[in-house]
Every structure is written in structure tokens, then in C-alpha cells.
## 1
Amino acid sequence: MSRVLVTGASGFIGRALVPALLTAGYSVRAAARHLPPPFAPPVEVAIHGDLGAGVEWRPLMAEVDFIVHLAGIAHTGSGVAAARYDLVNHLATAALAKAARAARVKRVVFVSTIRAQTGPRSDYVLTEDDSPRPTDPYGRSKLAAEVALERARVDFAVLRPVLVYGPGVKGNLHALARLAALPVPLPFGAFTNRRSVLNVHNLVAAIAHVLRHPASGGETYVVADLEPVSLADIVTALRAGLGRAPRLLKTPPGLIRLGLAMLGRSRNWDQLDGQLIVDPSKLIGAGWRPELDTAVGLAAMARE
């Protein structure tokens, strides 16, 4: 039975990935930063510590066939220095890649981010053929980690997911789900910009696919659900999951932007009004299938 080391296993993606790998027939060693991740046997749990302080990866890789590297700073935001992003996301991944090569690990799957390729919005549909142009320390650190994997000459596959959603998600989507749960009209009916999103179970399927698919070695894939959605679509799906009508008001987006500025939340504007569409045709051509429809997945998230 092949053993997979999952770093960052206690996070949002890891909590969905570990049981899926067990179901697929893998033995799993689940590692987290501090407390052991919340899994019961037969999952083997471990602690990898703070990636920014340096990690001794070799003991964690004992008798490991594959690695899925999820650990890192998984968001942009104020209060995180560029040097911290570089330590945790880039240099720790470079050390992991070097150790994986020495341990003869068969493949490292690195879950990067679409922000390694672009800023928070794009005026054209993104594919893997586009030159990476990250716009912040988070994206640049993830791109540097991708480069480090390639330079380490270890077998690897890189996934660049868009915004991931599902039960237990945090951040902006969690806040939006709480808004959608309120029994009041919401002012998002005029937001027609579209953004690609990704259900966590579709991402887990992508990870499992590139883990076992020989031709994925050395490849980079952007990952997204099939159909991009508008902000109005997202709120409509969330409220449908609660058995409610959309109740969306067509408030001019400029007024929303002004309100965010007055609240000191201007940085959220690109996530609301910006467009970012990703074409996952390359991964689909390699055999991956995003089985869960976006509207169905958002509705399920609202019910959790």
C-alpha cells in the first residue's frame, strides 16, 4: 500500500483530502503545524512545526511514496511581511523538495494558487500558457516555491487552484455565506462580473488524479469548476441552499465601492467587482473531471 504524506493536513483542504486518500486505498501520514490533525487511525498523525522556523523533513518522509504539500500561508492580507511569505511558502518548500529527492519520493504534489500566475483580477481567460505575473508577496512566494520544486529535480506536479469553497471555508466566502443567511435583501443584483471558483471536493479529485497519473509529472495545471459565476450567482446559490429566494437589489456597484472605502475595506473590491476566469481544459484533457456542480456545491456549503 502506497503511503502519502500530507502537510498542512489540519487545514480546510487537508480535512477533505485525508479521508479521500484513505478511501482511494492509500496509507496516510497527516502532518500539521502544532497539534496533531483531527484524524483517527488508520491515519498516522505527525507534527511538522512552524515552516518559517525550519523543518527537519527527513523523519516525516520515512517510508513515504508520495507527498501532497498543503502547508503554508494560504491567504493574502495585511500584517504578514514579505519575508515571512518567503520563509514559509518558498524556502520551506525548497527544503521539502530537496529532502524528497534524497528520500526517493515518487512524486510531490504542490498545491500552489492562481495568485502565483496573476493578480486578483484578469481581463482575459487564464491558462497555463500565460506567463506568471503575481502582484503581491503571497503570489510571488508561491511562484518561487514552484520554481524551487523544478530546480530540485524531484518528480512533481503543481496545481494552481482559484478561490476554493466548501463546508468549513473561512475568509471572504465565509463572510458572504453569513450575509446570505440573513433574512434581508442584499445589494448584489447588479454585479455581473464572473469569477472562477473551485469546490474543495473537485480540488481533492484533482490532487488524487495528478498523484497517480504518470503523465502529470513535471506539469502545472490551473484548477477551477467548469462554469465561472457572478457575485449574484453565488448569493443566489447560497440562498437556494437555505430554501430562500435570492432577494437581490440592483444597487449600483459604485455605491458599494464607496461604502467599502468608508469602512476601510477597499482591498475587497477586486474580489467583488473584478473578473477572473480560468480555463481548466489542460487538466480535463489529462483525465480530471470536476464532478460537483458549482451551484450545488455552494448550496451544500450554505446548509452546513
## 2
Amino acid sequence: MKISGNKILITGGASGIGLGLTERFLQEGNTVLICGRREDALMEVKSRFPSVHTHVCDLTKSYDREKLFHWVSKEHPDLNVLINNAGIQNWMAITDDDFFERAQAEIEINIEAPLHLTSLFIQLKSLQTIVNITSGLSFVPLTKTPVYAATKAFLHSFTWSLRHLLKEKNIEVIEIIPPALNTDLGGKGLHDFAPPVSDFIASIFEQLKEGKNELTFGFTEAMAKNERDAIETAFNRMNG
């Protein structure tokens, strides 16, 4: 993936890792579109970075995802990068009264949305790159976040397949695998112990410049490395 001169859509681009990516891609000379549910959060980013294009979108709703695609295809038909970043994390127990309701929300945002958006945006002739944000919990689940960890394991597996399936369309598929970072994911204060997003973003962009398609940081570097060789051998054997 080239670092500059892109037109990029970042879902959930108003906070956390999404905001870090938004800021850095702008610095690198890209045009950035962001979407999210909260108009006030989008407008706050717009006030800091006036060149950002914003779109209010509830990614739990298939209709909103389709509206997002139609907006992009009409107003920004030269979009060439889709970053599936939006995600939610619930700390919960399976015995909680609202467990299933909260689990459904995680599945809608963390699985259904990137799958649906991918199937829509590969229709753009200009699309060159898809980036999926997974997690170190793809490899080892944190049982306090049982459904979140499972959704990220799903997306990690899907990303392997997607990279293989989109070769014939010459669409590059990149996976960003963050560890715990100091964001409000899951709730304020839960990740105050973790490294800052800025350090993570700096590392990610160095890896992008090196042409890597699996980007890791800290804990996730070791986890991905332990998995990669054996799984890649098996994957290639099964999928030709």
C-alpha cells in the first residue's frame, strides 16, 4: 500500500485507533473520509481537521451501510482504500441478563459490518486496498470479553481468506493487529495501563512503508509470528 495520495474511508474514524489513523493519513497527504454514529464526535474531528469528509452512519444497520456505500460511490467514486476499523468491546459474563443483546451488538459491528462493507466496496473499480483491524485477542481470548475476542478471531480468519480470494481482482488485503492500547474501548479507564495510540500508529506506518500486509505491535508481534509459519504452510496446502 502506498502511504500518500490515497482516498481512504475509515469506519469509526473519530476515536481511538481510527482517529490515530485519520490524523496520520492526513499528515501523509491523503484524503480521508470517516463515518460513525455520533455526529458530535465527527464534527469535533472536522473542527480539528477541516479537510476530513464525514458521514453519520450506524453500522449495525444494513440500510445505513448501503447508504454509506452509495454516498461514497456518488461523491467519492475514486476511493481506493477501505479501512474496517469500527468495533465495540463488551466486558461481560455469560450469566448477565443482557448478555445476548450485547453480544448481538458486537457481532453486528465487529463481523457483519466489515463483511457487508467489503462485499459492497469491492464493486468500486477504484478500490485497491482493504485494511481490517483485528486484535491480539484473535490468538488468545480474554474471557472477560468473550464475544469480542471471538469476533476478532473470526475477522482474522476471514482476512486470510479475503487476501487469497481478492488476488484475482488485484486488491491488496492488510491486517492490522493491535494489542491493548490506551483507548476507551470497552469503557473509560480499562486500558490506562496500555501503550499510547501514537506509538502504535508510528510503528504501523513504518511497517506499511516496508510493504508488510500483517502489521503488529508489541504483544501481537510475538503472537502472530508464532502462528504464521505453520498456518501459512497449511493454508497454502489446502487452498493451492
